Amino acid sequence: MKEKTIKKLELNTKKLENFDKIMSTKLDEIEELKVTGLDKGSELLNIISLCANVKTLIIEGDSRLDSDKVLENVFKPRNLENLILNAVKLPSSNILKRCTNLKRISLSDIRFCDIQDFLAGIAQPSQVEMVNLSNTDMGNQSIGVLEKFKNLKYLKLKNLKNCKFDFKFLKNQENLLKIDLIDNAILANQLKYIIDCKCARNVAINIINSDETRIGNCKIETEKNIAEIAVLINYLEDIVNKVNWRKMKKVDVVANEMVQDFDFIETLQKIKTNVHVILFDFSCLTTEHAREMKHILGLENFEFANEKGVTKFNIEDYIEIRQEIECAIANVPENLSQPEKFLKIYHYLGKEFEISEEYPEITDRVCTTFQLCQLLQDCLNCVHINSNIIFGKESEDDKKHYWNQIELDGKWYNIDLVLDMENIKKNKTQYCLLSDKEFFETHTPKSGKNNYCPENFNEKLIHVFFKTGLFKENLLVSYIEVMIEKIKKLFRINKTLNLPEAQNSEDGKD
Questions:
Q1: In this predicted model, what pLDDT tens digit does every residue of 304-347 receive, in sequence order?
Q2: Which among 115, 175, 432, 495 is least buried, having the fewest CB atoms inside 10 angstroms?
Q3: Going from the N-terminus, what domains does the chain have, and what CATH number goes with each?
């Protein structure tokens, strides 16, 4: 059967230039009417009054557009099922009560209006099936006003300002099929009302704890009142006492940044359910974290999330790769500057690793070009240096190639560790911290987040570092410092071995 086509009409001041053409259409067949502007005259309002069978009314404009004028001229307001108001002045309750058959209500970008008064003015709240409030200022009013809509099937609350979130009203919402709570400052103690709601739902929320610091993204999915939850690992402790974990079928613990302590493992022990740990990269958890999670929690796999989806990764494999990362950053003290931290990691990986495109094991210090770029990025994440991976071509053999860009002290640079590996083994570089102008003479980017790199890094600093291992501009001074350190080391060794001191020449006389 062919679907019925909904007849639509948009009206604003400019459209009135085609007034005769509009009047020649069958206005009584229009089902969706969109009003995006009002003129000072009456012609536009006259057209609205001729649209006798409108089911969906959309009013868009700015806060000065008066919705009352539009609704007053709807010929059969009882026919309206969908009311969508975007960035306009809300209609008064006296006008709104004429719309006795509303099923779907959507308010977006509403400011300086009494939302509670508007919702209270809905004539037949039991008929409303959908409420959408987005980017709207609630004027310090409670979301509990939605309690009057007893038969809601879909609720969406997005980025509400000055809103008192009290979700107790969800207890009596037995018909809800879906709830979307996006980018809202919801207190953690409200989570229990969301989870205990008697409905099948898909909830995406931001939660904050009682001192009003943001916890982060938390996703809850339930089916037949059995819940699944995903929460950021660093904030697990903040909500663990707010949730009835016995109702949880699955818990996804998400690590999207470096975890510092082990408290979360003890917290996870309290959750007697199916726990999955999702990582964004290898910088998130240390080798010791992984071992403890395998030993204490009995986990065999981590899951890795990226733009392509979620894939499983064996914990033992994770441990081996993470050990390589920890070797690379072992001699990178926290007090070093960002450039020096980077050069130490770049030098280490260039010295220790080899490239092969025949599916090597990265734990054998042989990897593909992409694996090496990813390894470098993970190492840099561990020392808080931003980086990304670029895909493209390099002119020498015109084949696909990967390289990195990094941000040092607020400036971005191009680097190609793959092409620099042989140079590094000879204590020099050619593709390290270059500007776009120089780097693009040999590289052509195809995809990836390509940041603008305006200039080369200080070439003298790089040269001295790879010759001496010191981050100094003066090569001679650096060599002297290296020799002094070697002499000090030699004396320390002699002292440790208790070697006899040289005798005075007079002591040797008979």
A1: 887 667 889 899 999 999 999 999 999 899 999 999 999 999 99
A2: 495
A3: 1-153 (3.80.10.10), 176-330 (no CATH), 331-457 (3.10.620.30)
